[in-house]
Amino acid sequence: MKTDFRDTPRYKGMVLIGLILFVIVSLFISIGLGAYKVGPMDIIKAIFVEKSGMNHNIIYNIRLPRTFVAGLVGVCLALAGAILQGIMRNSLASPSTIGITSGAGLMSVICLVLFPQYEYLVTPAAFVGAVLTTVLIFILSWKDGINPLRMVLAGLAVSSLLNALVDLILIFFPDRVHNTLGFSIGSLSVKAWNDFNRIWPYALIGFIVAMILSKKLNILLLGDEIAGSLGVNVERLRVILILLTSLLAASAVSVVGLISFVGLIVPHISRILIGSDYKYLLPASALTGAGVLMLCDTIGRVVAEPMEIPVGIIMAIVGVPFFLYLLRGGIKSARK
Amino acid sequence: MLESRKLTLGYEQHMVIKDLSFCIKPHTITTIIGPNGCGKSTLLKALSKNKKIASGDIFIDNQSIHSYSHKTLAKKLAILPQSPLVPDDFLVRDLVSYGRNPYLDWMGRLKEEDYRIIDWAINETGITHLQNRKMSTMSGGERQSAWIAMALAQQPEILLLDEPTTYLDIAHQHEVLELIKRINGEMGITVVMVLHDINQASRYSDRIIAMKEGCKVIEGSPKEVVTKEILKEIFGIDANIYEEVSYGYPYFIVK
């Protein structure tokens, strides 16, 4: 049997270029569509040439930051999901299924209620919540390795409880959190440049660290024993990766609230496109996550104009059927 | 030299390995035999620092394995568990390249020398024509060769194998054992393996360690270990012992 072209670095490079084009197209669609429609050329003019006017205002001050935030949230959650699936060696792991987003959400809400004047504290607080939740899930589902069933059940229980606590706080302090409903289902409405500034450093650092560790993640997929035998300090690596996923998930949650399914589904799509080698899977997940979230947010803005459907709801509507399809063995047939 | 001194370890209540001492000489093949659950796999976990030791210690070149960093230990000792996991679409060559991990810097970049050693390991195990295939498309014997190639790329002094012939038919079992023998003979790598087939252990080993319930029952040459009395004591079976005509090693058939 000859080498399958789909296994060559050349093919994988082509997939990555394709995904970059997908992100660029999604970017223009997301900026261009809405209650006020703008063509691609006008978008470029509004950003780079015009310094004022309605086009410039709508594009530069409203659509552009919102689209960028959407893309980066997609990047963060997709990377977090891909990494979690690696360290737990389980394809059902993701920031939302195991409750990390809920833990981050709870701490963000607590922080907003207690210290409403310090917005910059929200992401660190969310990070603490995410780490604590991950550790809790590990303790609950660890028995000589992660037990997948326990992990899913523990995640379900923990995230239900944490979500209930989030809702409880939102009911008691509705005025402290802007757009409370949006927070608990994940919304990108009224995201501006300051939100963009709160997320891009984390996305960038997360991506770089993840890429440096991509080879180690591959080795971790071979099991703890082999990884240990190959000179990997498995426990330390796992702690570093947990901190990394927590940081990525926390930065996304603290900006847009509790979005589900991105971190679960995007790594699956990427794996179908490019395989499970993390060297390619991580950039592919980041790009796919960015594009998918920008498109889903656009759908939410356009489909029921002038009403706006929060992106979290669109993700769930698109995500659940896809997830069920994956569960039914779609992964295998799609690879062959 | 690999040495275990009064090693005891296990789970909270139940100690799986009790007071186990042995000393494995360089460049030999040692096989550990014993019934299911006698602690063989736990022992291999402890040897790779994957299991906490309750008391006693394991030494390589008279130094506790716990004083070595993970990477330094990996340059001395390679371990292949019984049925290692691998994602279906990992390529053989990529898998072998992970054997270089202990020699890489934090960026994990392979250098020219690493590529040379990867080629050498692939060539030695006879899988050159398979190197660009996915692991899922390989037969059991070919997969085992790929795993051994990965361990060779690690350039260890000692290679530990947990039941390397499981799930293989008799021809492939023989192939894998011959490969192990060659690795030992030509490269001088010390081999410690767990085998279920005692006749194979007798055929391929310099020394055999027989274990029962976490303790060492006897250690010696195949002739000293494969006897009526020992087989009765460890496995509770009655067997007749014969001597193989051309090589002179003992083998048995259950009565």
TrEMBL record, chain A:
State its location(s).
Answer: Cell membrane
Q: How the protein sits in the membrane?
A: Multi-pass membrane protein
Which Gene3D superfamilies does the entry link to? ABC transporter involved in vitamin B12 uptake, BtuC
GO cellular component terms attached to this protein's record: plasma membrane
Its predominant location is: membrane
Position of the signal peptide = none
Q: Which GO terms describe its molecular function?
A: transmembrane transporter activity
- Source domain of life: Bacteria
In the record, the note on similarity to other proteins reads: Belongs to the binding-protein-dependent transport system permease family. FecCD subfamily.
Q: What is this protein called?
A: Iron ABC transporter permease
Origin species: Zhenhengia yiwuensis
TrEMBL record, chain B:
Major location category of this protein: membrane
Going by the entry's taxonomy, the superkingdom of the source organism is recorded as: Bacteria
Q: What is the lineage of its organism?
A: Bacteria, Bacillati, Bacillota, Clostridia, Lachnospirales
Q: Which residues form the ABC transporter domain?
A: 2-238
* Keyword Secreted belongs to the record: no
Biological process GO annotation list?
Answer: iron ion transport
The family database entries (PROSITE patterns) matched by this protein are listed as: ABC_TRANSPORTER_2
* Native organism: Zhenhengia yiwuensis
Fetch the Pfam families from UniProt: ABC_tran
Has UniProt tagged this entry with the keyword Nuclease? no
* Membrane topology classification: Peripheral membrane protein
Stated name of the protein: ABC transporter ATP-binding protein
Question: Sorted alphabetically, which keywords does the UniProt record give?
Answer: ATP-binding, Cell membrane, Ion transport, Iron, Iron transport, Membrane, Nucleotide-binding, Transport
